[in-house]
Design goal:
By secondary structure, the protein is of the alpha/beta class. It folds into 2 domains: 2-223, Rossmann fold; 224-270, no CATH class. It has helices at residues 40-47, 70-76, 92-98, 101-104, 111-123, 139-152, 169-184, 196-202, 220-223, 226-233, 260-269; strands at 2-11, 14-24, 29-33, 55-60, 63-64, 77-80, 157-161, 188-192, 205-210, 213-218, 237-241, 247-251. The strands form 3 sheets. The protein has a 6-stranded mixed sheet, with helices on both faces. A 4-stranded antiparallel sheet has the order 2-1-4-5, with helices on one face. Helix 3 runs parallel beside helix 6 (139-152). It starts with a strand and ends with a helix. Mean pLDDT is 91; it is low at 262-270. Bound molecules: adenosine-5'-diphosphate and magnesium ion. Residues 40-41, 82, 161, 192 line the site of magnesium ion.
Length: 270
């Protein structure tokens, strides 16, 4: 459904992204990972049509992204920005309802719109705060209100920039499980995630960016090796196998070698 070929993006003389390639099908979950400043948000904004590449091409359902009108685009894909905020005193329900605008185009709210907003607020775990003003929300609550907005948009492609920011461990899992549910319904997800273990657990394709270039791309098993993590993040780590079968990255706080099998029960005992 989404194809990006050889994307390049530059600001002045600074190359933010070079030779970025991605192919996404319905139901895929792609995680963009990499250190701060690697170009993850830039890549996501290009894929969402918010930025135009200097060179390269993006198609969505076979059509060049640049040829879609803002409304056509908003009916197909939804974007969750890093640290979203609305400076107006909107209620949580009004924020979620913004997601219905591309479908409504001026008509009054239908029972379907109302049902979708209710379901999105429930899925994001924020329905109990539907009447609260956004200006009074905690960081995690604001994150969930904006997640409800992008869910209410009923997109076929969901672009999420650090959606687990400000969320406690319960809601981190919850939100990614909501994404899993959307995948089963055919929605493709592209998410910037900092937590390598959440990326490993939930995504089927990882793109590891480093200094604007793709350092590795493939399954979590292919991408998450201690050598690569050292090359890109400059830290020592061991990669174990999570009980669910996916790679599990354990950073080493100093360069003490760990005897992997013995260390596991020790860590579990605490
Ligand atoms: P990431 O999301 O991986 O942390 P970004 O895509 O936001 O990284 O940014 C990539 C790099 O581009 C960073 O070094 C950032 O400082 C730089 N950058 C982003 N926007 C601009 C801009 N408007 N002018 C100059 N540099 C920018
Ligand atoms: Mg970013």
């Amino acid at each position: 459904m989404l194809e990006a070929n050889a994307l390049r993006y530059r600001i002045g003389t600074k190359l933010l992204l070079d030779n970025f390639n991605l192919s996404v099908n319905p139901g895929d979950f792609v995680a963009l990972i990499g250190p701060n400043g690697a170009g993850k948000s830039t890549a996501l904004r290009l894929l969402g049509g918010e930025l135009q590449p200097e060179s390269g091409a993006i198609t969505l359902d076979g059509e060049p992204l640049v040829e879609l009108s803002p409304t056509q685009l908003a009916r197909k894909r939804a974007c969750f920005q890093q640290n979203p905020s609305v400076d107006y005193p909107f209620t949580v329900r009004e924020i979620a309802d913004l997601g219905r605008q591309p479908h409504r185009l001026g008509r009054f709210e239908s029972p379907h719109d109302r049902r979708v907003v209710d379901q999105s607020l429930t899925a994001a775990g924020i329905i109990h705060l539907e009447g609260r003003l956004q200006t009074t929300l905690s960081g995690g609550e604001a994150t969930r209100a904006h997640l409800a907005r992008v869910l209410a948009q009923e997109p076929r492609l969901l672009l999420l920039d650090e959606p687990t920011n400000h969320l406690d461990i319960h809601y981190q899992q919850e939100i990614l499980q909501v994404c899993q549910q959307r995948r089963k319904e055919g929605c493709a997800i592209i998410a910037v995630l900092h937590d390598l273990n959440l990326a490993s657990r939930f995504a089927d394709q990882l793109v590891l960016l480093h200094e604007g270039r793709t350092a590795a791309q493939g399954t979590p098993e292919e991408v998450l090796t201690s050598e690569r993590i050292h090359d890109v993040y400059g830290i020592e780590s061991v990669v174990w196998k999570h009980p669910c079968g996916c790679p599990w990255v354990v950073p080493l706080l100093d360069s003490h070698p760990i005897e992997t099998p013995e260390a596991l029960p020790l860590a579990a005992a605490h």
